[in-house]
Design a protein that fits this description.
Layout lengths: L7 H8 L9 E6 L4 E6 L7 E4 L4 E6 L5 E6 L15 E6 L4 E7 L4 E9 L6 E9 L2 E6 L5 E5 L5 E6 L6 E5 L3 E5 L6 E6 L6 E3 L6 E4 L3 E5 L6 E6 L10 E2 L5 E6 L4 E6 L5 E6 L3 E6 L5 E6 L17 E6 L5 E4 L5 E6 L3
Antiparallel strand pairs: 1-2, 1-28, 2-3, 4-5, 5-6, 6-7, 8-9, 9-10, 10-11, 12-13, 13-14, 14-15, 16-17, 17-18, 18-19, 20-21, 21-22, 22-23, 24-25, 25-26, 26-27
């Protein structure tokens, strides 16, 4: 269905952001409503809503920008497993926004969360099932056929691949980061990092970034040894970090602090603290000048009596002025992605 048009005042505010890359599409998951909202990056008022499964979390786009995959997690949050564990992955057509099909997890595997296409051919879709038998499920990305499964270290919540797809790196809710063979599932190495809740690559793809509580770790991906610690950022738990393509900025979203901390990669010094609400994930526009931030819904008291309720939503961050513009009408967001065509 189409969303109502946004106000002229908002459109004028959005227009103040300099040139947004043409022909880019943003897709963002709404967890509570069980929806994916799709809109052109240059015109967020033109929104199309696609229904998916219960409590969806992650979204992964195919390289051609025509298809997205959504994990129907079914649970509120990794540490607060309220709800019914999901059993499907929604396949969404982004050209004519609609749910095309659903991939079914094999018996015993439930609560799919992390979701990634394996490079460089992107023919295999991986998801970590957190409940039931637990473990990794690998689908044929076109047919949805289950190609294989393998066990995972306890508590794996999300993961990413290296550029050639020869290794995947997963973090656990028990404090570890592990390097895993994506073909056999063999665990090559694990290291305790404290409180990992997000992974990313440095701009050159040579080092792994791990988020933590008030710190970011830079790891050697071969041995998972710590190369560098960036600490004293003035926040609590950091979630999914991202680096700009030029390697200048590292963006660290801190949900409960309500800010994205912008760090100089070269020095580790905090350059900006950008208030966005309850930031979880960052999708960088290929122009290198903008970032789309998803902010999760935070129920009052979720993390203790001092936790204030936050509606969540989508915010556009200008990386030249570090000003923000909120996109109205999309509360309770989680995964977010942008096409890079």
């Amino acid at each position: 269905m189409r969303m109502p048009c946004l106000t002229i005042a908002w459109l004028l505010s959005f227009a103040l952001h300099a040139q947004i890359s043409p022909a880019q599409t943003v897709a963002v998951v709404q967890e509570g409503p069980g929806k994916v909202v799709v809109f052109p990056a240059r015109n967020p008022s033109h929104q199309t809503v696609v229904s998916v499964g219960d409590r969806p979390h992650e979204i992964e786009m195919a390289p051609d920008g025509r298809t997205a995959y959504v994990s129907n997690f079914g649970l509120l949050e990794g540490n607060h497993k309220i709800g019914t564990p999901g059993t499907t992955i929604s396949v969404v057509d982004l050209q004519h926004p609609a749910e095309r099909s659903r991939f079914k997890l094999p018996a015993g595997f439930t609560a799919p969360h992390g979701l990634k296409l394996r490079p460089p051919k992107f023919r295999e879709l991986f998801t970590n099932a957190e409940e039931g038998s637990g473990g990794m499920v690998v689908f044929d990305a076109v047919s949805g056929t289950v190609l294989r499964t393998f066990p995972l270290p306890p508590g794996v919540h999300n993961f990413l691949f290296n550029a050639d797809g020869s290794a995947l790196f997963a973090f656990t809710l028990t404090g570890n980061v592990c390097r895993i063979d994506p073909q056999s599932g063999k665990v090559a190495a694990c290291v305790e990092t404290g409180s990992p809740r997000g992974l990313a690559w440095t701009a050159d793809g040579r080092s792994l970034i791990v988020s933590g509580k008030d710190e970011l770790l830079i790891l050697d991906p071969t041995h998972l040894s710590v190369l560098r610690r960036i600490t004293n950022l003035g926040v609590g738990q950091i979630f999914y970090p991202a680096t700009t393509a030029d390697g200048r900025w590292l963006l660290a979203p801190a949900v409960l602090d309500g800010v994205v901390v912008v760090v100089y990669v070269s020095t580790g010094v905090v350059a900006h603290r950008v208030e966005t609400g309850s930031p979880l994930m960052v999708a960088l526009d290929p122009d290198g000048k903008h970032a789309w931030i998803s902010n999760v819904l935070v129920p009052a008291g979720l993390f203790g009596p001092d936790t204030k309720a936050r509606e969540g939503g989508v915010v556009l961050l200008d990386l030249t002025t570090f000003t923000t513009t909120a996109v109205p009408g999309i509360p309770d967001t989680n995964g977010i992605a942008i096409t890079h065509r």
